Every structure is written in structure tokens, then in C-alpha cells.
Amino acid sequence: MNPLFAAILGVVEGITEYLPISSTGHLILVSRLLGLKGEGADAFDVVIQLGAILAVVVQYRRLLWERTAGLVSLKKESVSLLVALLLGFVPTAIAGLLLRKKIKALLFGPGPVALALIAGGVLMIVIELALSRRTKKPLDGLEHVTPMRAFLIGIGQCFSMWPGSSRSMCTIVTGQLTGLSTSTAAEFSFLLGLPTLGAATIYEAYKSREALAAVGGLNVLVGLVVSFLVAWLVIAGFIAYLKKRGLVPFGVYRILLGAVVFMVLVRR
């Protein structure tokens, strides 16, 4: 690891964390391309998610401040959002604690990532086309994220632990299936990333602290700063895009990328 590689991975993390194309999958592929592998590289890929988390905090600072302040007076919208985030977070937290080691041992590789990319891409396209035929108007606004919808989105988020599937894809698609508009599902996905990615980052940093020390503090700092700046630019643009267009182009991209990875693996 060196500052240049750390910056490259920071750019990859910032671009892909909130797009439905899998940040972990891309980081694994790019890390292998750069010749980086092992516990330190895997831990670095997880820890620099903190930069993307901070980007959500900055982008939604007004909403987060209003909802946090509203908890003091128990305002309905503030309590509802907190309950929704907790219900969305719990399933993934439990699954992560139970399956973390097995997932890292079996699925952190180009082959499983390519398979998840293709499967997720096909799923996104099929669901997008199916939902385009519905007559009922999707629900727009975070006030429509009920406890049941939040819990179902949390169940969907569990599937994102397979690298290449994408946390954003799993949560946005599940949100769509519960009746939410694509942009509202994406906004809730961003906010749900705060406890989910925050817990994963803290846990990984603690468990792999020795490996991270070997990676180097400067490299980690570079990765964090770059991922924050890039993710901040991506978030606003993605929401604006979703208000006018759908997820099909991202599905096509996933399928093409997965196919390329499989071709490279076969030729080795």
C-alpha cells in the first residue's frame, strides 16, 4: 500500500458506495488489480467506508439535525425515522456477527464478486421493468418508510454481505418492492448506511487493528479523505438522477463488468 494506491481505492469507494454497483466488489477487484491482498488490504477496504459515511452526514446535515433535535420533544417524524433506522439495522447486525468470518473466507474473491454483479444486474433490470407497469403511484418521502417497510429493507440489506451484490442495490430494490419511489428508497438507503457502515467500520478497525497498522496511518487517512470528497459529489447527483430515470443502466453495467471478470478468470 502507498498513498497513490490509497487514493485510487478512495476514489473507487466514493463513487461506488452509494451507487447500486457494489463498493466492496469494486474494491476487491481493484485491490487485486493493484496487487493488494491479505487481511490488511481487506480491512482497509472496509475502514475507508468511514469517509463515505461522513459524506452522508454532511449532505443530510440539516435533516439529521432537525430529526435529532426533534427526539428531545418526541416529534413524530423524528421518532419514526429513528425507529425505521433501528429496524433496518438490526437484521444486518445479527447476520453480520454470525456470518462475517465465513463470508470473508468464501466470498472475498473475483469469482464470487462477478457472480453477484451479474445476478444483481439481472434482478435490477427485471424488477425495474416490472414496476414500470404498475398503475399505483409509488410513495415519495421518508414519512412513508413505516416500521414494516424499514424491517423488510433491513432483511434485504442482509443479502448485501455477499461482495458484489451492493448494499445500495439490495436496499433500494427492496424499498421499491414495498411501494416506495426509487429516490425515497435511495435516501433511506443512504441514511441506513450510517449505523450499518458505521458499525461495520468500527468492528473491522478493532478486529484488524494490527493489520491496519501495517498498512500505515497516512494511507488510511488518504483513503478516508478521498472517499469522503468523492462520495459527497456522488450522493446529490445520484438522487437528482433517480428523480428522472431508473436503475436499468446500472444493471447493464453490472452484467457487463461481471462478464468481463469471468472472461479474465477463465483465460488465466
Structural write-up:
With 268 residues, the chain is mainly α. It has one domain. 79% of the residues lie in helices and 0% in strands. It has 13 helices and no strands. It has helices spanning 3-16, 23-33, 39-47, 49-59, 61-72, 76-106, 110-131, 147-158, 167-177, 182-207, 209-215, 217-242, 248-267. Helix 1 packs antiparallel against helix 2 (23-33). The radius of gyration is 18 Å and the shape is globular. The chain starts with a helix and ends with a helix. The mean pLDDT is 91.
**Helix count?**
13
Which stretches of 5+ consecutive residues score pLDDT under 50? Answer: none
Spell the H/E element sequence: HHHHHHHHHHHHH
Mean pLDDT, to the nearest integer, reads 91
- Output the radius of gyration: 18 Å
Beta-strand level of the residues, as a percent range?
under 5%
Overall geometry = globular
Terminal Cα span: 25 Å
- Strand-pairing-aware structural class: mainly alpha
| Percent of residues in helices | over 70%
Biggest beta sheet summary: none
Counting copies of identical and different chains, the oligomeric state is: single chain
Brief write-up:
The protein is mostly helical and 268 residues long.
Keywords:
268 residues, 13 helices
Which helices and strands occur, and which strands form pairs?
Blueprint (H helix, E strand, L loop, with lengths): L2 H14 L6 H11 L5 H9 L1 H11 L1 H12 L3 H31 L3 H22 L15 H12 L8 H11 L4 H26 L1 H7 L1 H26 L5 H20 L1
